[in-house]
Amino acid sequence: MKKTRIALLAGTLLIAPLAQAGVVIELAAEASRPAANDMVRATIYSEASGSNPADLARRVNQEIAEALKVIRDKPAVSVKSGQQSTYPIYGKEQKIESWRMRSELVLESKELATVSELIGKLQQMRLALGSVSQMPSPETRRQVEDETTRDAIRAFQSRAAVAAEQLGKAWRIRQLNIQQGGGMPLPMMRASRGAMLADAAPAPLEAGESQVTTMINGQIELAD
Fold first, then answer.
1. pLDDT tens for residues 157-204?
2. Which of 39, 81, 97, 174 could bond 221 through an S-S bridge, CB–CB 3.0 to 4.6 Å?
């Protein structure tokens, strides 16, 4: 069973001399829940060096085009262009000796096994793996954020009720600020082109979980 973590932060009593207002108390609360890392993101790239930038562009673009043919055979995997760069390599006396070009493709999917297999095929085609990360999908993240928001609001209300009860006052919410955190991509690997080409066997991917947190800061006002 997944566990929900709720933390109540100490409230600070603030007596504000506001017209027609009672005592104002500042409170904070937060709640966290685990979210399944049901989406994987991988960066694949082609890179080449040489003296002629035009030749490099043709080589790299050809590798990317071939990779796209393979990726598009997997409907469950989405693909988009990543970073692209061409820059000079300087030698002695700051003279350009050669050029290096790199072009990336970013893959995303909920099917971890499919992505793992696809990475292996692309590496056999002389493309390199830049990084792999896993995270909750947007749908999963929204669902867990809704749950932690409910938990955090209940925690805030409970803290407010305790404070008001001890002071023998009725209370109402004066202000709330809700923030979401956690659930960011979890990096699984980064490797150089040489290292990844040395062993093209794809590593198995395990989903795991990320913590999603909702934080609430607010004020309650006590009745006179």
1. 999 999 999 999 999 999 999 999 876 665 555 544 444 444 444 556
2. 174
* Model pLDDT for residues 175-185, shown as the tens digit of each residue: 999 999 876 66
Amino acid present at 150? R
Side chain identity, residue 104: E
With a cut of 70, list the residues of the chain below it in pLDDT: 1-21, 183-206
Token match 């008001």: residue? 164
Task: Provide the angle, in degrees to the nearest 10, between the axes of the packed helices 53-71 and 112-124.
Answer: 140
> Where does the chain show beta strands of DSSP type E?
5-14, 24-36, 39-50, 78-90, 96-109, 128-135, 171-182, 186-190, 209-222
How far is the C-alpha of 175 from the C-alpha of 163, rounded, in Å? 16
108, 75 in Cβ contact below 8 A? no
